[in-house]
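Input record (one chain):
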Amino acid sequence: MPWKWYDSKVTKIAQESPTTKRFWLETPEQLDFRAGQFVTMDLPISDKRLKRWRSYSIANAPNNERELEFCILQMEGGAATAYLFDEVKEGTNIKFKGPDGTFTLPDTVEKDLVFICTGTGVAPFRSMIWDLYNHNKLYKNIHLIFGTRYADGILYRQEFEEFQQKMPRFRYSVALSREENLRPSDFSFEIVKGYIHQLYLAHYNNTRPDVDFYICGWSNMIDDAVANLLLKLQYDKSQIHYELYG
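The corresponding structure, as predicted from the sequence alone:
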């Protein structure tokens, strides 16, 4: 069955970091979606249909409201983000189809969850964490491992700091690849200078059957992470789930 197309309206835009913005869309009806899914927007950037389509993960959890949130990175030379960042305003109409995607948690979470992501790849995990929290769903332990270049690029930082207090079995770790003069004492969570790979390699070097890894980010990061988990750490491929966006 073909996806249904919806006409939505931008209700709010906020700068989340120097290179990312949050966009809120009001939908014509309440959408039934699962945390971790995405929608495909049809943006007026080309005469050719497939060149107009861009997919973005939903950043908010299902909440019985007619609202979707997206966290989008401004890509240098990207036609879609040039439109979204330079032309879209509150009140702009955006057409999309979906939601879709299988990058979701099982109905019953029976293993520890390790979420590995870079940049706006954190969006589906934010949706999942809020969904677990809002609906008091059962889970074991959650470890969110996030990577970016600089401290001002830590997306949803305050929210995840607060989750450390609200969800006792939630853990938050961040790797900054280019931040100079990093002072870990300035942060309320684990933070290192370097790349995201060193964090999960250190924390999960004793192979365990009771953990599932979910990975979201650029394709080269995912390729490296999957190879490390399979070859270096000897995890079974059934324990590794991923969603790439480039």
